[in-house]
Design goal:
The complex is a heterodimer of chains A (706) and B (341). Chain A is of the alpha+beta class and 706 residues long. Chain A is built from 19 helices and 33 strands. In chain A, 29% of the residues lie in helices and 27% in strands. In chain A, α12 crosses α17 (588-594). Chain A starts with a strand and ends with a strand. Chain B has a seven-stranded mixed beta sheet, with helices on both faces. Chain B has a three-stranded antiparallel beta sheet with strand order 2-4-3. By secondary structure, chain B is an alpha+beta fold. In chain B, a hairpin with a 2-residue loop joins β3 (161-163) and β4. In chain B, 40% of the residues lie in helices and 20% in strands. Classes of the chains: A alpha+beta (706), B alpha+beta (341). Chains A and B meet through α2, β3, α6, α9 and α11 of A and α5, β1, β2, β3 and β5 of B.
Chain lengths: 706, 341
């Protein structure tokens, strides 16, 4: 909440030798933040930010009170003067006009004050008053309406002034609204009111939307001769509910919703009366209606000086603490406590009644006036935390670094997704968490996969590069039972897109995935054909993936950690891609749990290996990994020497019509190696025969001779 | 044989003279001196066939010549080598200003870079990185943080809801009570996470990253909070930057502070880019006793402080050059934006 206060107005109530710049600086350090000072005509204007807890400084008098407490701490003279605080009810009426009031529910209105004034002469406000209002952001209308705004700004108490002659029957009934009731407010808008709105009716009609804006039908106009001056407190939750629902934010509403000074209604009422008499020739013409539904009792808060000293890390004295609290309007005393320093008892001033309730509130008061800038700057002591760092953050960083150095751009998307984009990638929005109050249709669901956004981002960027490598690492949200929180899973989805792509693209992406596993120290991983029964576990819809270019990835023989593959061409058509892509979609929670930086050392064998290439002709669909595994097994089965240090690589792989229909050629490069001695050609000949026997039987493989 | 030797000498001398590089020298060496196939070696091998009376003299001559040839080759090699080195500037000249062969390296997102910088600084102070739910119960997101039912942040204009009791956390503070509930003191955590609020304009995003530090222990003071913030600001923004605390109001802390840092341009004197020398960084405060109680701890015995603010804004405050006119570009994933970081 921002208020604008002219310097001249502030100085009417605060006697100080501080310059406007000093006031700005010192108030900001210890009280409400003064955002700026502007020079306007022959005055200065402060723009001040008032926090929600400090409704008491949302006024000229409130800021003056802060000045009196704060400025002397910076060696500036500052004393309050002329504060309007007349708390006596106005004297005997001079006329006898009738006004009656009734409050249906006392909780709606803790304090109600009204009086009829006669002899009103509507004209322009005096210059000083109109100018101050305009500087503070209010439009000057006439001498009567201006008074209500002026006193509100000055004292933080909203007021309202009705045209008495527009109140039928001289009767005001304050109550909650009935379903369907409407009122045309001062701004000319006919408003249908939400339930639990406080209204006033006269004999026949609604005349006031209480605490927010008056009714048009009872407003003061140029012909007004008699008025009702009106001041009260309202139930803050009612005011808040109504103005939020109507989205009708007024100064009065913002004051009432926070709970204004319970002792402040009458002084403001008297101040307005004084100004109306002075500037509108008002004469009192009725009894004062003064209904007090809630009697105010001041409360006290206790504070131990030891606690204060601990929080401030300063040996502040009891004497100084008392001085500070007194300067803020607290009534202080000391209560003897056995075996420790006396306890400070502070009676809270009425204008801070809603704000200061516990010892910590008093600590804040003392600390800010003492000066946060005077508190030392120290690093915390104490023992180290028991909870150690979770290594997953480290592994996530490793993975991101790996991807960066392999050319990947990291993208970041909102947590939300729309039905349209979900459906475009075959995801069913029913499987996603739905936002009750979304900002718009595109932000209606929480993401169940990072893939739709990746495809979208590729679509938006494909004109900038022939190859795109992108990834996102963030949460997805899997719904559970309705009453439960969704499950949040940390996921990595990456894409390689190329305008010109062969099926090597798949193997390029596979290399990236294996590279990540290597980076994470995961040695035991496996790629196999994706089955539709796996989809649910992977949170994937049917037909998202290419039917024959997709692999399921598992680690440690059982845990499925993700998918590598192309997106189904039908889905790609929805994104108008001209090139092709391969995506990897990995469960980071499982991967970072499995990750390890434990390394083992195998002694290096100094004698050279015997290297041989073995080319095989097999059926096209024979999984290469299975041939390699069988070959390896045959090596290990060879009992005459221990071949475990050997190495098997796939050195060449191709399909070609000259090989025969549905055939492919796979070439393995075998590094025969044993710990104890160099192998001879004779050794490898025997081993090779065993291998070939096995592969011929298992895969009907034929050895190709070059 | 004598004639053969003379012929060899002549040939070898000619070849040596002609040789203009080290490779050719190697070939000459191989041709004449190879242990098995060298021409001179062959002659030497034939010695036993020579009549005894000539053998000794011939043998001596052969060996002398072999040594001579070895020396000549070596000499020539040295000559060539130094010539080659002398010629290096010409023969191996490169245009070093020609464009580099760029390896296709990718980019981390600005947010990731900023999060890393932030968390490393706090790790040095023993703060442990933690992660908490983004979709959270009303209790952890608000109730336990001393935010009553009618608090503005809780209403449907400001916070996204899944159900009445499940919200998207609008702040990282939702992790505070969960961390305290573990019951292990002292707590020093840093929670950097996604948050969501019902907002979207030039300076606000519906999804954004916040970070939050929490320290709960015995004997924790405002001085300690100042110490931690000062350490962070000097490490993150530079050794000359100062902090100041201003009074403000948050529900989950008491007292509560706004944290300002001195402006990098005017060092706190006041200039066009800052408000009177200071720039707003974020919020902080001493943990409210109601929050400590909600975490199952004894508010009489332990105290704590918390601080936090937005990651995107912090990244932009780090360098005045990263001033984007519309913050939404950070989430647009335009490659031309991403490749700048």
């Amino acid at each position: 909440m921002i208020i604008k206060i002219p310097d001249s107005w502030l100085r009417e109530y605060l006697d100080t030798d501080a310059t406007p710049n000093e006031i700005k600086e010192f108030l900001t350090l210890s009280g409400p933040t003064v955002e700026s000072i502007e020079e306007v005509s022959d005055d200065y204007l402060y723009t001040i930010e008032v926090t929600p807890n400090r409704v008491d400084v949302q006024s000229v008098v409130g800021i003056a009170r802060e000045g009196e407490a704060i400025l002397p701490r910076f060696n500036k003279k500052a004393e309050l003067k002329n504060i309007p605080n007349n708390s006596k009810l106005p004297k005997i009426p001079e006329g006898k006009l009738n006004l009656t009031a009734e409050i249906k529910d006392p909780k709606l209105c803790p304090h109600f004050l009204a009086i009829v004034l006669d002899n009103i002469e509507i004209k322009d406000s005096p210059n000083f008053l109109a100018e101050r209002l305009e500087k503070s952001g209010f439009r000057s209308l006439n001498n009567v309406v201006d008074v209500s705004n002026y006193v509100m700004l000055e004292m933080g108490q909203p007021l309202h002034i009705f045209d008495y002659d527009k109140i039928e029957g001289g009767i005001m009934i304050l109550r909650e609204n009935l379903n369907g009731e409407k009122i045309k407010t001062l701004d000319g808008v006919l408003r249908e009111l939400p339930l639990k709105t406080i209204v006033i009716q006269d004999k026949n009609k609604l005349i006031d939307l209480c605490g927010i804006m008056g009714g048009e039908n009872s407003a003061v106009d140029e012909n007004t001769k008699r008025v009702v001056l009106f001041a009260q407190r309202y139930s803050p939750t009612h005011i808040r509910g109504t103005y939020r629902t109507l989205n009708l934010v007024t100064e009065a509403a913002l004051l009432f919703e926070k709970g204004i000074d319970p002792q402040g209604v009458l002084p403001a009422f008297n101040r307005a009366l004084e100004l109306l008499k002075k500037y509108a020739q008002a004469k009192i013409a009725s009894d004062v209606i003064n209904i007090v539904n809630e009697k105010y009792h001041p409360h006290s808060v206790e504070l131990k000086i030891s606690k204060l000293q601990e929080i401030l890390a300063v040996r502040i004295l009891v004497e100084e603490t008392l001085d500070i609290l007194k300067s803020l309007g607290f009534k202080v005393s000391l209560k003897e406590a056995p075996f420790e320093a006396p306890i400070i008892v502070a009676e809270v001033p009425s204008y801070r009644a809603n704000d200061v309730k516990i010892p910590e509130d008093l600590i804040e008061e003392v600390a800010r006036i003492y000066g946060y800038h005077k508190i030392p700057t120290l690093l915390p002591e104490g023992s180290p935390p028991q909870v150690l760092a979770d290594k997953k953050f480290y592994w996530e960083d490793c993975t991101k670094d790996f991807l960066k150095f392999y050319g990947f751009f990291e993208v970041v998307n909102f947590s939300f997704i729309g039905k349209e984009l979900l459906n475009r990638t075959n995801f069913d929005e029913k499987n996603a968490l739905k936002i009750k109050n979304p900002l718009n249709k595109e932000l209606e669901y929480l993401r169940i996969s990072l893939i739709p956004h990746l495809l979208k981002v590729v679509g938006e960027n494909k004109n900038f590069a022939e190859t795109l490598k992108l990834y996102e690492m963030e949460r997805i949200y899997i719904p559970r039972e309705k009453t439960e929180l969704g499950e949040e899973k940390f996921r990595l989805s990456g894409i390689i897109y190329k305008e010109q792509a062969s099926k090597d693209l798949f193997y390029e992406a596979k290399g990236i995935v294996e590279g990540i596993f290597n980076e994470l120290g995961i040695k035991d991983f496996d790629f196999s054909d994706l089955k539709s029964s796996d989809l649910k576990e992977l949170f994937c819809p049917e037909n998202l993936w290419h039917p024959s270019r997709t692999a399921k990835i598992s680690i440690n023989k059982k845990e499925i950690v993700g998918i590598l593959g192309e997106i189904h061409p039908q889905i790609l058509a929805n994104f108008s891609f001209s090139g092709r892509e391969v995506i990897f979609d990995l469960d980071m929670d499982t991967l970072t749990r499995a990750a390890t930086d434990l390394k083992t050392y195998k002694p290096i064998i100094e004698h050279p290996p015997v290297i041989e290439d073995l080319s095989l002709l097999v059926d096209k669909k024979t999984p290469t990994a299975e041939i390699r595994d069988a070959l390896w097994e045959a090596l290990l089965d060879y009992k005459e020497v221990d071949l475990r240090p050997s190495l098997v690589q796939i050195s060449d792989y191709y399909e070609n019509e000259s090989l025969g229909k549905n055939k492919k050629s796979v070439t393995f490069r075998i590094f025969y190696l044993t710990k104890l001695r160099s192998l001879s050609d004779k050794d490898t000949e025997k081993i090779r025969e065993k291998i070939i026997d096995k592969l011929e039987v298992t895969f009907k493989a034929k050895v190709r001779r070059k | 044989m004598k004639q053969q030797l003379e012929k060899v000498k002549k040939e070898a001398t000619e070849e040596l003279e002609k040789a203009s590089d080290i490779k050719t020298l190697g070939e000459i060496e191989r041709k004449y001196l190879h242990k098995k196939t060298g021409v001179l070696t062959a002659l030497l091998k034939k010695l036993p066939e020579i009549p005894k009376e000539q053998r000794k003299a011939l043998g001596k001559e052969l060996n002398l010549y072999k040594q001579e040839l070895i020396n000549s080759i070596k000499k020539k090699k040295n000559v060539l080598a130094s010539e080659q080195i002398a010629d290096l500037p010409e023969s191996e000249w490169l245009d070093v200003t020609a464009p580099a062969k760029i390896q296709p390296v990718g980019h981390l997102h600005l947010i990731t870079l900023t999060i890393r910088r932030i968390s490393r600084i706090f790790e040095n102070l023993g703060f442990v990185h933690r992660r908490y739910p983004e979709v959270e119960t009303d209790y952890y997101a608000f109730e336990s943080l001393n935010m009553p039912k009618n608090h503005p942040a809780r209403d449907e204009w400001e916070t996204f809801y899944i159900t009445e009791n499940i919200a998207l956390t609008p702040h990282t503070s939702s992790g505070q009570v969960r961390e305290m509930e573990r019951g292990e003191l002292p707590i020093r955590f840093i929670n950097i996470s996604r948050c969501d609020r019902r907002q979207s304009d030039l300076t606000h995003l519906p999804t954004f990253y916040q970070f939050e530090g929490l320290l709960v222990d015995t004997n924790v003071s405002i001085a300690n909070l100042k110490g931690v913030l000062d350490y962070f600001v000097k490490n993150f923004f530079g050794p000359k930057r100062e902090i100041r605390l201003r009074p403000t109001d948050f529900r989950f802390t008491e007292p509560s502070f706004e944290i300002d840092i001195s402006c990098s341009i005017c060092s706190g004197k006041g200039c066009k880019t800052c408000k009177g020398g200071w720039m707003e960084l974020g919020g902080a405060g001493m943990v409210h006793p109601n929050v400590i109680k909600a975490g199952g701890l004894d508010a009489e015995k332990v105290t704590g402080f918390a601080f936090g603010w937005g990651v995107e804004r912090t990244s932009m405050m780090l360098s005045p050059e990263i001033k984007v006119p519309d913050i939404r570009i950070i989430y647009k994933n335009d490659l031309r934006f991403l490749e700048q970081f």
